[in-house]
Specification:
single chain, 454 residues, mainly alpha, three-stranded antiparallel beta sheet, 16 helices, 5% strand
Length: 454
């Protein structure tokens, strides 16, 4: 009996040892796979952590750094010391063709005047060739980006300056204000961060909106139109979102690896690092999720580098495929219910990001085309019958709709014209413009338009 019991114990120990060896081999292979993928990313010169992302966001000599001068402008921003500051913050740009009221004009004029020093510093900054804000990406996802809030204030000041110039017919200051708006956006070109690039897109969209308002209010001469056409054409940057996705991947990798992550300690008002529970390391939860995430991100970044609209078709197809493989669950910090939980959380936003970039490119194409039409009108005293008349004197080729790859659409109106893109839904609605009071419950399809009723 004792011998039988001894054999049972020996077999059990052997089985446990075999299981332990299998587990060790599995964990070693899993870690090796992860390390190989990370090594391949580094070999391509790309970052895999917040620390490496700091180096990827290249340093710029101080005498060439527009961002440093922009930060000097931050200190010069002024506001009203009374309730008028709220009025400025809550001011809504009037609809196309509608002037601001005398009271609003007085409010904004004084606001722009008190910020003339900040505007002057912006104009110094945009003359410099490069830009690198003092951002430390070590904390990863919780990296602080305070310059974005300050840039938003500068952008509003320049936007108000442009609107006031359109009201008074001051074409010289209008062109200067547009240069400032584009320059503020350009200062974010190299920032490897999705939030920063979405802000960059919003700034460029505000340029388009401001120019649409301006062209409905004022005639520019041929020289000014040519300057603006060159400026807006130069505003388009390719692969910004691919760079942002590379940065986003670097910030997220430590979370998958279950390494210490940076958390906010409000009691001590500082950032501290914390470790996830050890059991998740033994389960290989992070590594399995990370392998899947890295494979998907390799594909997404490759898609982001494709020209429009191929990148949109590819990412839409891939998101649909990926969704079938990932189940989303409610979770708390470090509470894993599925091996791909973090991937399920972070990956679906990629399609939204690329569509936002397509909208950005669309608005630029529409604006460049509108300026070409205005140059044609200035030269010939009439509007073109179709966009082919703009080529090659005012456009090198027909502008393409990023959403379907076809030339932008153009219609003459009873007074003026509309240029439009079919938008993300791919449906040609004949230039139907989304109303200013549009609600999310409205199921009507609309195009992305640029309209000049003059």
């Amino acid at each position: 009996m004792k011998r039988f019991f001894f054999r049972i114990c020996l077999a059990a120990l052997f089985l446990l040892a075999l299981l332990l060896v299998c587990f060790i081999v599995w964990r070693v292979n899993l870690a090796r796979d992860v390390n190989a993928k990370l090594a391949a990313i580094r070999a391509a010169g790309l970052p895999t952590s917040g620390v490496e992302l700091n180096a990827y966001y290249s340093a710029v000599p101080d005498n060439e750094n527009a961002a440093l001068v922009m930060t000097q402008a931050f200190a010069l921003i002024r506001s009203y010391s009374d309730s008028r500051s709220n009025e400025v913050d809550q001011f809504q740009f009037p609809e196309r063709g509608q002037p601001v009221t005398p009271e609003e004009s007085k409010l904004l004029y004084s606001y722009v005047e008190m910020n003339s020093d900040a505007l002057a510093r912006i104009r110094e900054a945009i003359k410099l060739p490069e830009s690198r804000y003092p951002v430390d990406y070590t904390p990863g996802l919780i990296t602080l980006l305070p310059h974005l809030t300050q840039l938003n204030k500068l952008e509003k000041i320049a936007e108000y300056e442009l609107m006031l110039a359109s009201q008074s017919g001051d074409t010289t200051n209008a062109v200067v204000a547009i240069e400032s708006l584009v320059g503020i956006a350009h200062s974010l070109d190299e920032e490897p961060d999705i939030i920063a690039q979405l802000v960059h897109v919003r700034f460029i969209l505000s340029v388009e909106n401001s120019l649409e308002y301006y062209l409905n209010a004022t005639n520019l001469n041929a020289t000014q139109l040519g300057e603006l056409a060159a400026l807006i054409a130069n505003a388009e940057r390719t692969n910004l979102m691919a760079r942002a996705l590379i940065g986003d991947r670097a910030e997220l990798i430590p979370y998958f690896q279950l390494k210490p992550v940076w958390l906010r300690n409000d009691n001590e008002n500082k950032w501290v690092s914390d470790y996830p529970p050890t059991k998740y390391w033994f389960m290989g939860v992070g590594e399995r999720d990370l392998i899947y995430y890295l494979r998907v991100m390799d594909t997404n970044i490759a898609f982001a580098n494709l020209p429009f609209p191929r990148n949109l078709d590819a990412i839409n197809n891939f998101v649909g495929e990926a969704t079938d493989k990932i189940e989303q669950h409610p979770y708390t910090s470090f509470h894993y219910e599925h091996p791909f939980l973090l991937s399920a959380t972070f990956l679906p936003s990629t399609g939204i990001i690329l569509k936002r970039e397509a909208e950005f490119a669309t608005k630029l194409h529409l604006t460049v085309t509108a300026l070409a039409i205005e140059r044609f009108r200035s030269a010939h005293g009439r509007l073109p019958e179709n966009l082919n008349e703009l080529v090659p004197q005012f456009l090198s080729g027909l502008p393409v709709d990023p959403f379907d790859g076809q030339p932008l659409r153009y219609h003459r109106l009873a007074k003026g014209y509309v240029i439009y893109s079919v938008g993300a839904d791919g449906h040609d609605d004949g230039g139907r413009e989304k109303p200013a009071d549009w609600k999310s419950t409205d199921k009507t399809t609309y195009d992305i338009t640029f309209t000049v009723e003059r």
